[in-house]
Amino acid sequence: MSPAAERDRLLAGHGDLDLFGRELARLDSALRGRLNADRESLEKGLAQLVLTLVEVIRQLLERQALRRVEGGSLSAAEVERLGETFLLLAERMDELKEAFGLEDEDLNLDLGPLGKLL
Amino acid sequence: MLYVYAITDPGASTEAPGIGGARVTAVREGDLQALVSAHERLEPATGVDRLWEHEAVVEGAGAGGAGVLPLRLDSALAGEDEVRALLRERADEFGTVLRRVRGAAELSVRVGLAVAEEPAPVAPGTGGAGTAYMLGRLERARRAEDLVRAVHEPLAELAREHARLGPTLSDRRGQFRLAYLVERGAVEPFRARVEELAESQPELQLTCTGPWPPYSFVGSAA
Amino acid sequence: MTAERDAIDRSRRAAAARRERTRAAYDARRAADRRRHDASVRRARLAREVSLVDLVDRLLDGGVVIHGDITIAVADVDLLYVGLRALVSSVENMERELGAGLSAKGPALAATPR
């Protein structure tokens, strides 16, 4: 088998394969980042780490809140208050991401042998 | 130091060179063997070549029909004694998983959904912006779940086992990762069914790759 | 005489126009070939990239994990990440336990084997 054939495992693909282009860039930097964890500028690296943690917690809380809304155990006022909080948090995250020049896919950490954080 | 590629049925071998062109040999213990290569010094993988080298050894080992448990990238042990100890201590577990995956390959299916990002409109009198946000998220999650299920169920019928791979941030952009453990002989029918589903549901973006070694189905051996 | 020259001119012009059309058709064919070739090269590249993304996912997240005495990685960074991972999985476990009683439907598909 030639190396080119070996590396092509696409059995069926429809729609926009370009979806993978950005993912690939992220994965490539994750692989390199395993060895060079401190190569990025300190400020951006720290912002990325902190925002990733905030994003992890935001997602967990939001998923939990959605389950409770779905379960019907919350009053209308509680749902509204929760929603306002998450809406605000989502907007604030977008602002912070923009301020530090980070994309959604930057808010993840490759944990080496442990896999990816998110 | 021994880089460990896979745990296999005894006798499985591969002609593929190991990482950095190293010779791959087998360490046998009881009814199991490990495929390894010896290195003075190992650096962590920093590029894609290592991935394909690891992959080539694992695939070569399974090409003759032997059961193969692929190890996670960059698994290494100090020497042969440690490898034998691993095979001895976890023999039952490895044997069980080998029985589950023998004769099957993993196929990956990614489902991309063009689910709208804007909050869904909310009927008047049901609350304010916060409620609209929550109901919008909920509705989107439900719609995505329904669409993914419509793809998953017909594919699961053709598979021995299936798994939904953990959520990644890309799921937020509407991508879902599914994995199927499929008999080697059923790979082509599976692929054909993916094509059918893609044609009948043009709003979905389906991507199927494989056959892969059963990476996503040996994790319970961890 | 004039008529004859006119006829020659006409035939020359016609020949030139024919050459022009032939060349245009040739150029169009070349362009179409090139587009097809570009598209197939692009598709081949994307197919390899898609395959690579799936392979990376599998090799970093899947596969048997052995807790060997050697981890090929940068120790400090890994320790930090081990801590983060532990934090996240404990929150996830808590979430699962809380969620089990609250969710009416539960997940539609089998849980992740990880």
Describe the structure.
The complex is a heterotrimer of chains A (118), B (222) and C (114). Chain A starts with a helix and ends in a 19-residue tail after the last helix. In chain A, helix 3 packs antiparallel against helix 4. Chain A is built from four helices and one strand. In chain A, 28% of the residues are buried. Chain A is mostly helical and 118 residues long. The N terminus of chain A is likely disordered. The radius of gyration of chain A is 19 Å and the shape is flat. By secondary structure, chain B is α+β, with helices and mostly antiparallel strands. Helices cover 35% and strands 26% of the residues of chain B. Chain B has five helices and nine strands. In chain B, the strands form two sheets. In chain B, strands 1, 2, 3, 4 and 5 form a five-stranded antiparallel β-sheet that branches. A four-stranded antiparallel β-sheet of chain B has the order 7-8-6-9, with helices on one face. About 2% of the residues of chain B have low confidence. Chain C has 114 residues and is mainly alpha-helical. Chain C folds into two domains: 49 residues; 58 residues, no CATH class. Chain C is built from two helices and one strand. The C terminus of chain C is likely disordered. The chains are: A mainly alpha (118), B alpha+beta (222), C mainly alpha (114). At the A-B interface, strand 1, helix 2, helix 3 and helix 4 of A face helix 1, helix 4, helix 5 and strand 9 of B. Strand 1 of chain A pairs antiparallel with strand 9 of chain B, so a sheet runs across the interface.
